[in-house]
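Here is a complete protein record:
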Amino acid sequence: MDRPGAPLVRAHVWLSVFYALSRAALWLAGLPFRFDLDWMWLADPGDLRDRLLETLYYFHAFPPGMDFLTGILLKLGGARPESMALGLFWAMGLVLVNALFVLGRATGLSTRAAFGLALAFALTPPAIYFEHLYLYEWPVTTMLCVAAACFHRGVRTGSTGAWAAFFGLCAAIGLTRSTFHLVWFALMMGAALWAAGRQCRHRVLGAAAIPAALLVALYLKNLIVFGAFAASTFGPASFHLVTVDRLPRDVRDQWIRDGLLSPFAAISAYAPPREYARFFATPDLPGWPPQVTRLEHVAVRAPNFNHWWLIEVHRARSADVRRYLRERWFEYPATVLTGLGDYFGPSTSWHPRAGLPGAPHAGHRALLGVYESAYNRTLHTFPFAPVGVYVLLPVILVWAARIAWSLLRQGDRGARARGAVLAFLVLQVLYVTAASTMLTFLESSRYRFQVEPLIWVLTAACVADAWTRYRGSLVRPGSD
C-alpha cells in the first residue's frame, strides 16, 4: 500500500526521467549550446575570471547576477566552462519542469494534467532554445516558477522556510534582471503580507529582511559610487527606445538644434561607447579601474557598455525622455500598443538578426527549424499575426482572477492558498507585460518567455475550471 504522497513522488521521478531523456536525445542529435560571452550585459570575461569581486563592485550597466554566475563558471570550469554552463542550464530545466508540475497541482490540476503540462512545456521550441542559450531568460524563468511554488507553500503552511526561499529567489531575480525592479520586490512583499494573513506576517517580514537588504545594498552601492539609485544605469537608454527613438528624424534633429534634446538623442541606444568619443576629452578617469575606462573588452571583441561615459550619456537620455513625455505624450500610448503586439510575437524570433547565420538561435533552428515553424504558425497566426492565440490572454487573466477571488473568500486554508497562487501568477503576467511594453521597445517577445510557463498554468487552470463546470451542468437534480 502506497504511503501518502507516493504517487506525487513517482510523478516527479517520471517527469525528471522523461526530461532527462529528451535532453539526452537533443544532445545526441547535435543541438548546440551557445555560450557567448560578448553580450552587452556582461563585463569583460577576463576581469570576471581574475578580478570577480572588484569587477562586480565597479559594474553599473546592468544587474550583476549573470556576471557573478559567469565569473564562477570561468573560475571553476577550467578549459571548458561552456560544459559546466550547459550542465547548470539542464539542472535549471529539471527544476523548472518539476516546479511547473507543483504549480499545476497547486492551481487545481490533476496529477496527470499537471504532468502533461510540465512535460509539454519543456518540449516547446522556446523552452529548448532558451535552455541552450547563455542568456538570463532561462535562469529568471526558472527562479520565477520556483518562487511561485514557494509562495503557494508559504500561504498553505505558513512555513518560515518557504517564505525565506521565496524572498531569496525574488532577490536573486532582482539582482539578475532589471525588469524586476526594487518596486517589484516591494510589491512581492505586499502580496506575501496580504496572502499570509495576520498570524504569519511576522514570519514574512523576518524572511524578507536579509534578501531585501541585499537588493537595497546594490541600489545604494550604485547610488554612492555612480550616482544612480538603480540596479542598472542602462534604464534611460531602454526607455529612450520607446520614446525619443520613435520621433521622426527631422523632428528629432530640430529638437537637438534647438537644445530641447541632448546630442546623444541622435545616437542609437545600442551604440558602443566609442561612438561618444567626440563628446568627451578622454576615456580615462583618474582613480578608476580599467573596468570602467576601457572602451572595449580585452578577452572578447566586444564594446564595454560599463564605460563611465555611458553614465553621463544615460543621465542626458533620462532628461530627453522627460522632454519627450512632456511634449509628445499623446504618441506614447500608440508606441506601447505597437510594442504590445511585438511582445506577443514568436519568442524564438526576438533577435534583430533572426534568420541569419550569426543569430543566437541559428544553430538551434538548423536542427529544429521545421518544428519551430509549425509551433509558431499554430500559436501566432490565427486569428491574426503575430499575436495569434494570445489574443485570448485577457480572457484567461480575468477568468483566473475570478477563480482566485472565489477561492480567497473561502475559509479553508487550502482553497485560500490556491486562490493566492492564482492571483500571484496573474500579477506576474500583468507586471512583466507592462514593464516590457511601457519601459522599452524591441526584442520584447523574449521578455514574455519569463512568464510563459505561468501563462500555461493559468490557461490550464481555466480550462480545468470550464471542464468542471461543464460536467457539473450535466448532472440533473435527482440523478444518481
Observations:
- The mean pLDDT is 95.
- The chain is about 65% helix and 0% strand.
- Residues 81-106 form the longest helix (26 residues).
- The two ends are 30 Å apart (CA to CA).
